[in-house]
Structure formats: structure tokens, C-alpha cells
Amino acid sequence: MYSPTWKLPHVFPPVAGLSRLIYCSNICHRANSDKVAPSLHIPDQSFLICQYQVHRAPHLVNPSITCIFSIFAFATCGGFQGETTLLVSCKGVVNETVTAGFAYPFRLNTVVFSAPDPKRCGGTWTDVYLVGNFSSSAQFFVSLAVLVFLYCIAALVVYVGYKHVYQQNSKFPLTDLAITVITAFLWLVSTFAWAKALADIKMSTGASIIPGIESCKAPGTTCRFASVTSMGTLNVSVVFGLLNMVLWGGNVWFVYKDTNLHNQSNRLSSPGIYPTQEYRNKMIL
After folding, report:
1. Which residue, among 87, 67, 83, has the nearest Cα to 75 in the 3D structure?
2. In the predicted model, what is the mean pLDDT of residues 124-148?
3. Contact by Cβ (8 Å): 121, 133
4. DSSP string of 179-222?
5. Mean pLDDT, range 119-139, rounded to an integer
6. Does residue 190 have a pLDDT over 70?
7. Which residue has the higher pLDDT, 142 or 170?
8. Exposure b/e, 9-18, CB count within 10 A at least 16 = b
9. Residue 121 near residue 138, CB atoms below 8 Å
10. Is residue 1 within 8 Å of residue 148, measured between CB atoms?
11. Mean of the pLDDT values across residues 167-187?
């Protein structure tokens, strides 16, 4: 979340949008030139003005982008449904299809294969379960994405409707900075944990499961791996997790610039004198 913590009520002319950005660009470009620097008294102040305008726009967009990315993260992971298929031949059955369906939150140890036939291969077929419980990593990833989405919605509401409150209380930017740092770290942890869990899910639902099925070792019984649902959407969820991690990590700097920590360093390096009215009129022309 971003909202400027200081205002320049008399520096910019009454223009908006692109004209205002062009005006700021002119100041940045011309403030330190030998011809116009005297009219500014202290040319370094122009860079503070430029920072206010140039960095204002990205922070209104950041909550929107993080909202979208978090939606894709939990939708691609939480909405997945898959199936593993085997071909079983045993007494009275030839190449019968048995399936085990799995989905979020990926408690595979509760998923059982269907029986090849009502007689269960003459009584030699016992219940066969997939291996592994990956619900903790999956739920951590999805829960974080949902919470981030809700926080981004709240951030947009505060920025648009309560910007003055955010500006007047220095604790809000510091709180925002702390939340941003923590969120970036949680995206890092949850994404790598989910990526590791996804690799294990692929192993637990692939062809490597056949040697561990005791029913397939019964005399006269053979099992062949047929197929497993593509996990491309789960791969995409990992990608969105990485994108969220990078986005929130980069956003730490922009939110930091909103806090007193950054503003104090700026005030120490700049005397705080604004451009003269004559110079502002030149910039408009």
C-alpha cells in the first residue's frame, strides 16, 4: 500500500495527469542546469519534488497487481482436480481400468483406487491408497494468497478513501512496511514449500507407485501405469507464487520511501526550499 506522507500544496500548478508529470520531468531535467539553478535557490529540492510525483503512480497500481496475482495463485492451486489411472489384469479381468481421484488439499493417503471388478480379483485385491499428505504446504500457500488478496483490497480502500488518515499518522506507513516485509518473506517460504510438495505429489501419483502396491504382487496379477492428469496448472501456481514474492519484495522499497525513516534522511540532505514562482511559471511555459 502506498500513500504520500508529505504534501506540496503550492509547488505544482493547478494541472493534473500527464501535464503534471511532464512538469515534474522538466524540473528534474532542468533544475541542476547552470541557467535555472539560481532561480531554485537550492536545486536539490527539485529531486524531492520529482520523487513525490514519479513514485506516486506505481503505488496505486501495486495493490491492484498483487490482488490479481494472488487470485491466480490460489485459483490455480485450490481449484485443481486430478486422477491417476492403472490398468490391472488378474483372475477374470484383463486390462481393467482402476482410478484414484485426488484434489486440493492433496491428502493423498486418504485416496483409494477403485477395485478392478466386484469380485476383487478373486479376493486378492485389497484397498490400495496413494502415499503422502501434502495438505500443510498446499493450505499454507492458498491461505496466504487469500489473506494477501484481502489485504490488497483493504489497501486500495485506504489509499482511495482514507489517504488523509494515512498521511497524518506516521505509524500507518511503518505498519505497512512491516506487513510488506513479512508478506514478501511468507511468499518466499510458502512458494518453495509448495514447489517441493508439488514435486512429491508428482512422484506419488506417477508410474513409480506400482512397485509399492502389494495387490499387484499377487500371483496372476499384473499392473501397468496408464496415465495421470496433467499438473500444468499447479506448475503455474508456483510461477505466480514466485511472481508474488518478487513483487512484494520490490514493493518493500517503495513502501519504505513512505515512512519517516526515509523522509528523515531526505530532510537531512535537502534544505527544504521550494522553487520560486518565477521558475514555476517558466516550467509551465
Report:
1. 67
2. 95
3. no
4. HHHHHHHHHHHHHHHHHHHHHHHHHHTSGGGGGG-GGGGSTT-E
5. 92
6. yes
7. 142
8. eebbeeeeee
9. no
10. no
11. 85
DSSP H helices in the chain: 18-30, 37-40, 45-54, 56-78, 120-123, 135-161, 163-168, 171-204, 232-256, 260-269, 277-284
Q: Using CA atoms, how far apart are residues 222 and 243, in angstroms rounded to an integer?
A: 45
CB burial of residue 262 (10 Å; 0-12, 13-18, 19+)? middle
| Predicted local distance difference test score (pLDDT) of residue 4 | 42
Length in residues, the chain: 285
Confidence (pLDDT) at 21: 38
Which amino acid type is present at position 248? W
What does the pLDDT read at residue 106? 96
Q: Which residues pair with residue 82 across a beta bridge?
A: 102
| Other CB atoms within 10 Å distance of the CB of residue 57 | 11
CB-hemisphere CA count at 13 Å for 251?
A: 31
The one-letter amino acid code at 133 reads: N
